[in-house]
Amino acid sequence: MPKLNSFILILFYLIWIQYLAGSQLDFDVWKIGKRGQGSYNVWVYFLDKIHDDSPDINSQFLAIRDSMHDRTIQRRGKVKSDDNLIGIVDLPVSKNYIQLIKKTGVKIRNKSKWLNAISISGTRKQIELISQYSFVKKIKPVLNGRRRKANPSSRISKTHSDSSYYGNSFNQLNQINLIQLHESGYSGKNVRVLVLDSGFYLNHEVFDSIDVIGAYDFVDQDSIVFNEQGKDPSNQHNHGTAVLSVIAGFKPDKLIGSAYGAEFLLGKTEDLSIEAPIEEDNFIAGLEWGESLGADILSSSIGYIDWYTQHDLDGGTAVISLAVNIAIENGMIVVTAVGNSGFDGIVAPADAFQIISCGAVDENGLIASFSSRGPTADGRIKPEVCAQGRGTFTATAFSTSSYGNGIGTSLSSPLVSGVCALLLEAYPDWIPSQVRNAIITTADQAGSPNNNYGWGIINAVAALDYNQAETPPDSEFFISNVYPNPSDGRVTFNLKNPPSLKLNLSIIDVTGASSFEKDITLSPDQNILQLNLKDFSTGIYLAVFNFEHNKLITRKICHIKGFENTCTE
């Protein structure tokens, strides 16, 4: 039960029953959050989302729904019922709280509605003052980090090509059996991919036909995602350029990206002018931005290695992993590099639940020595899959026509992301777990996964041909509705596609303690399950269905004795 209880507490966090820790500050906060002379970057978490001038919560939900991007509604609608499409996490951070924080003289860096927090830059005195505000739940450092460079055990050989059309990118695509999908007409058309990285040299010839529908620089707060003279170091956009070229590049006879026909949202989230350029608040701001604009897939090559220990990598401790969990709950497919730390372990957010983390192999399919090995702190196999990340052919930012061979799990990720885009093009109704299942269960070591290769090198053709009915994805059985909610007594769960299985149902209160637990056997024709909560105290509870080796489905229940019209969280 320890693993389950830990996960339950994480889920309560995501529905705004936040960490029980207060806002006490300690020396570690200052040490980790310090940036430059006397300046600190910290998260300020709020207790609630109160807006003095706001209408009732249902009116706010309707307003958010009316302003939401059509693609976001469609994507969320694949994984959520219509009445659960909008939630508390979609309400903006309180403008009143932000204004009060501003009055202390700090700089507001980013706002996160998902975390109900803002990131700020200020002095120790300013932050200590803010910590005393009654509406502040807690203050934590904004963690930053460096991307660990891959350390090859031997010299990288130049990739050869057996197909002039694909140039030197042939091997990395052929290894994952992707070229046949291109030849069948799949290129990622109508799929929207979010790429968050260091910047992008879009003047390169490989991007002449790229479809960029949105771009934003979360470091300088503008729309320029390539190097700005006088602002950025010369190597600022090098990494992002290479990563983007692997998925989006299109220059026949030189380089073809894995999903060159997709639409792209580009976010610049790293600041290479500082020693540890990866700031987690920029990443989260970029993720929320992309989700709001209807991104179907996040292709990420960012990993945090400086502050999180392997014990923290349990899917629910790292702030960016929590944000990724919310993105996946909203129907996004998230693909990330597992890291370049070898046997030192994985990096966040590769530990997030239902993410697809990618390890690196060479052109012969052998695992790279630098490719991070799992498991997660809670025992899940990592990585999920592998693709070429050693000797990978990319565009480089040295000129408009320069190319080279790169190294790192950062380059495996866009190959796998590209295959996900092709699958969504072929099956636009697939949800993240279906895409993930197709990718994982058809990889070349699916029969015996391990913490070196995960489920193995992906096979795009087999994933396309994957029959979802043969191995039902996690989401085939889910709770489509809970009513009445709030409830003052009996609550009913609507079941969709219940298999014939035994499961454990627990009702957990806000402290993580179990208020009710029962083993239940479902039958395929059972479409409802009822519980009597009449003797429960007023409060918010979490119903946890645990089945098939700790697969979890959770639903929030609000129980108020005596009436069932309102519920405050």
- Characterize the main sheet: 7 strands, parallel
What structural category characterises the helix and strand content?
A: alpha/beta
| CATH domain fold name of the largest domain | Rossmann fold
Classified by CATH, the class of the largest domain is: Alpha Beta
The CATH architecture of the largest domain can be given as: 3-Layer(aba) Sandwich
Q: How many helices does DSSP assign? A: 14
Give the uncertain stretches in residue-range form. 12-23, 152-162, 470-475, 563-569
Which strand order spans the largest sheet, edge to edge or round the barrel?
A: 7-10-6-12-13-14-15
Tell me the β content.
15-25%
Number of strands: 24
What does this structure look like?
With about 575 residues, the protein is of the alpha/beta class. It folds into three domains: about 10-145, no CATH class; about 165-465, Peptidase S8/S53 domain (Rossmann fold, 3-Layer(aba) Sandwich); about 475-560, Immunoglobulin-like (Sandwich). The protein is about 25% helix and about 25% strand. The chain has 14 helices and 24 strands. It has helices at about 1-15, 25-35, 55-65, 70-75, 95-100, 125-130, 170-175, 180-185, 240-250, 280-290, 320-330, 410-425, 430-440, 460-465; strands spanning about 40-45, 105-110, 115-120, 135-140, 145, 190-195, 210-215, 250, 255, 265-270, 280, 295-300, 335, 355-360, 385-390, 390-395, 405, 480-485, 490-495, 500-510, 515-520, 530, 540-545, 550-560. The strands form seven sheets. It has a seven-stranded parallel sheet with strand order 7-10-6-12-13-14-15, sandwiched between helices. A hairpin with a 6-residue loop joins strand 18 (about 480-485) and strand 19. It is globular and about 70 Å long. The model is unreliable at about 10-25, about 150-160, about 470-475 and about 565-569 (pLDDT under 50).
